[in-house]
Design goal:
The chain has about 270 residues and is an alpha/beta fold. It has a single domain, classed as 3-Layer(aba) Sandwich (Rossmann fold). The protein is about 30% helix and about 15% strand. The strands form two sheets. A seven-stranded parallel beta sheet has the order 1-10-9-6-2-3-5. Strand 7 and strand 8 form a beta hairpin. Helix 2 packs across helix 3 and helix 3 packs parallel to helix 4. It is globular, with a radius of gyration of 21 Å.
Length: about 270
């Protein structure tokens, strides 16, 4: 039976793995969460380089993704990350040209090219300012992946943050690997491409992570429904990386409940 005082005075509920498709890895804080993610990415990169000779990594743009890249660069545990065999792709991009401060590859290249030594020809920016950007990126992906054995011609690791639109995904009317988002303001990898990936990671922490978990688990729509989560890798892994705070569910009906016949004490 619940203690009525812990119901009433905003005591944090115990964390538990949220009911999400795929698997969930939980860290105590942001750094531990990123370390869990970095370890999985490191293992995947090494395995793919040993098997195929290269590693194809696709990221969405966000602070956690940049912190992950920095961790992979400076943490001694990941010093042998095979950057010289890594290809870096953008999952989505706003309508700006490479080199613009808001272009994702502008930030990433400073980390992995200038500091990490990844060859510039293995950085694949989206030329989103061009009218042919989606078709061009579609073709570039095919050119770099098609030489692999059939069934292995796919992205090796996809990482996105708490972007709801990317988690839902979208299908291009022309059935391309890349297309314009419905708002026409971004170029985005389609569900067809993302769900063919070997590994999809979703990372979110803190308030943003808690909001994401609550939105998905409280929804009247089944979380497995593509209306909420359109990412479901075929023959691959879907894994969520969340911190302790994100996994302390605020939708518990017993939390933040006003006490019965008693006043909330004033903070001291």
């Amino acid at each position: 039976m619940r203690d009525p005082d812990t119901q009433s005075y905003d005591i944090e509920p115990a964390k538990s793995a949220p009911d999400l498709p795929g698997s969930v890895r939980m860290g105590e804080d942001i750094e531990e969460t990123l370390d869990l993610l970095a370890a999985d990415l490191f293992v995947q990169s090494t395995s793919c380089v040993n098997q195929f000779g290269d590693f194809h990594l696709a990221l969405s743009h966000g602070q956690l993704q940049e912190r992950l890249l920095i961790k992979l660069m400076i943490d001694p545990k990941y010093r042998s990350m095979p950057w010289t065999r890594t290809h870096l792709w953008s999952i989505d991009e706003s309508i700006v040209e490479p080199g613009h401060p808001e272009h994702s590859m502008t930030h990433w290249s400073q980390i992995v090219h200038e500091a990490g030594g990844i060859p510039s020809q293995q950085l694949h920016p989206i030329n989103a300012h061009l009218p042919t950007a989606a078709t061009d990126y579609h073709q570039e992906l095919i050119e770099h992946l098609e030489w692999r054995e059939r069934g292995h011609d796919r992205l090796d690791f996809v990482l996105i943050g708490d972007e709801r639109a990317l988690i839902r995904g979208f299908d291009d009317p022309a059935d391309q690997l890349v297309g314009f988002a419905p708002c026409q303001s971004r170029i985005v990898m389609t569900r067809r491409l993302l769900n063919a990936s070997r590994f999809i990671g979703i990372v979110s922490t803190g308030d943003a992570g808690r909001s994401l978990v609550d939105d998905l688990t409280q929804s009247s729509t089944n979380p497995l429904d593509s209306a909420q989560i359109g990412l479901c890798p075929q023959g691959g892994v879907l894994r969520w990386y969340l911190d302790d705070y994100a996994c302390r569910h605020t939708h518990d009906p017993h939390i933040n409940e006003e006490p019965i016949n008693e006043e909330r004490p004033e903070p001291r």
